[in-house]
Design goal:
The protein has about 350 residues and is of the alpha+beta class. It has 2 domains: about 230 residues, no CATH class; about 80 residues, SH3 type barrels, CATH 2.30.30. Helix content is about 60%, strand content about 20%. The protein contains 10 helices and 6 strands, in the order αααααββββββααααα. Strands 1-2-3-4-5-6 form a 6-stranded antiparallel beta sheet, with no helix packed on it.
Length: about 350
Amino acid sequence: MRIIDKYILTKFLSSFALVLILLLPIAIAIDISEKVDKFLRHADLSVTEIIKDYYIHFIVIFGNTFMPLALFIAVIFFTSKLSSNTEIIAIHSAKISFTRFLKPYFIGATLVTLLALGMNHFVVPSSNKIFNEFSKKYLKTKKYNQNHLTNINLQLDSNDYIYLKSYNLGTKQGQKFTYEKFEGTKLKYKLMAENIRWIEKDTVFRLNTYRKRFLLEDRDSIEQGIKLDTLLAFMPNDLVNIDDLAKEMTSIKLYDYIEQSRQRGVGNLNTYLVEFHKRTSLPISTYILTFIAVCLAAKKRRGGMGINLAIGITLMFVYVFFLKIVEVLGAGAETNAFVMVWLPNIFFGGLAVYLYFKNAKN
């Protein structure tokens, strides 16, 4: 590794660490100002517990979230500084091509990507679990009962839906159950029951005071009874907030859960798949954002660093906005979660390639 590579790589990593260290205290200060009154409501809650069970995991979760933004700002900042000091011109004058100039950036992006992959797949899920448990226990305005769920809607696949007015995960019993099957936009079958209970030894659901309705072409057929044991394409744990459940599992457990759910015939697993694929796509975006930042900042512009930062931050927020949209769309039953999650990287990857060739020609 040449001296110039060590110089750029040192600037890369130190600037990244500095921006991240500056962003986290701001986030913590804002969070404390919003939560301090809720902390004070609990006389038994010590400062040590708040730091250990909440803010340490807050730093892990939000530090991981801020990584792409911190990296993007850091690369634009120090590369713009190199450009304004005419150091990049001197590098090109030494017959170092733009491609060769990118080598230390590639090494730095690789180090950050490996860190982010480890965080996303193994560390952050554990922190999410402790962080969410603390939040449910101390920060909810009302007493939070983790076992009692209300007004549950769940899409099993593109045509099947269930609804429960309430469900208790402890007793595995629910009230006012409805199952609906559609063909396109037409309702074809509806199953209703006053209560539902999971029979674990038989792996079936027991419906009490049930009513079946078949919607035929020329008439409706209705069947009712007192008790019905039936198979349904979900399990009691599927009724938990699936977004939280997915985020609290390490990638190995999440993958096993997805495979088990597929074997049980659960149709719509896209929320889990979005979370699973996002844990890899976000770290890989480090490369894309790094190269975009270098290409934007490598040229000396009128207006200096401020213009580069303005353009860069705008692109960063477009990327985040795009990412949130595809996450929501990717959770739909009729979409390909893998394609949707990687779509922002594909789009911005194309932009990175365009900017690279534009700079390489000059």
